Amino acid sequence: MVDVILGLQWGDEGKGKIVDFFAKDYDVIARFQGGPNAGHTLYVNDKKIVLHQIPSGIFHEDKVNLIGNGVVLDAVTLKRECDSVAAFGVDYKKNLL
What we know:
Adenylosuccinate Synthetase, Chain A, domain 1; two-stranded antiparallel sheet; 3 helices
């Protein structure tokens, strides 16, 4: 089964929070298009983190998080986010492809 959460407004609809909420029920969480977005704001252990490139399922360590070939990748932003995620104790090298 595949479900898609797709925004049809201006990018600030809460998609990241919704993806994070449902991620526990899926094996793969993927970004499939676009570039660094305005940011998906999540709260992990009551701490705020904003993701621009990494899929919002990254804090579910048993899930595969995929940045697809249709995404415009900003390497500087991605590196910064990887460092931020690692600071939360997540080994992104295990589940970010």
